Amino acid sequence: MANIHQTALVADSAKIADDVTIGAFCIIEEDVTIGNGCKICDRSTVKRYTKMGQNNVVHQNVIIGGDPQDLNFNSEMISYTEIGDNNTFREGFTVHRATKEGEATVIGNNNFFMVNTHVAHDCVVKNNNILVNNAVIAGHVVLEGNCLLSGLVAVHQFCRIGRFSVISGVSATSLDIPPFCIADGRNGSIRGINLVGLKRSGVPTETIRALKNVYKIFYRSDLNAKNSLLRIEEEYSQYPEVMEFVEFCRNSKRGVNQGRMMKR
Asked: Which residues are catalytic?
């Protein structure tokens, strides 16, 4: 049997794995699924239509699966919050379910959400991301994976943040951030390539060197965005990571952050 504190309120329809721990004064609503090894700490709430995988740790005063902050949302509609495995949600974290019938806000695996971070409705947060204290992402944002959002970062709705990108503290973006880049300021400059993250993840030195050259071409040459991508593709198409950068920029719907020094 799950270890459920006597003061917790757990709905009869909730599906709770046998080794789950639920702390004092928690609320687990109807139509919730919580997988093996999860720990829900004191005074946290898991709202209805939430599906949670295995080995997630939910710290105090967290609310998972709340209604979206959308004036047009119908609270009677069925939409979901889907969470994978091995995530950590620190104190005050919040995430909201999707705004459309049958759809879901999705959080993948091995993410770390620090104090008072927020994931809005319809977001997709893939794997191995870190959100530092008070970082917030608005609706429909996609974090592609291995992203670092530093403290007090704000991401505008519908933005896409590429893999292994970093956004420096107290920054804000309403533009897409290409993969492997470090962004700083309010739609400000791209400071360089995330060398530390790439090295720690075992990316080959030759690939990192190619990405450094991609940065110089795209952000520090006299070429415009279109021509710089053509040159990058001509010179470095043998590197999958480089082509990921190129395709990300070409497919951007909001436009990518090109940095203050980039000529348009």
From this structure: 121-122, 139
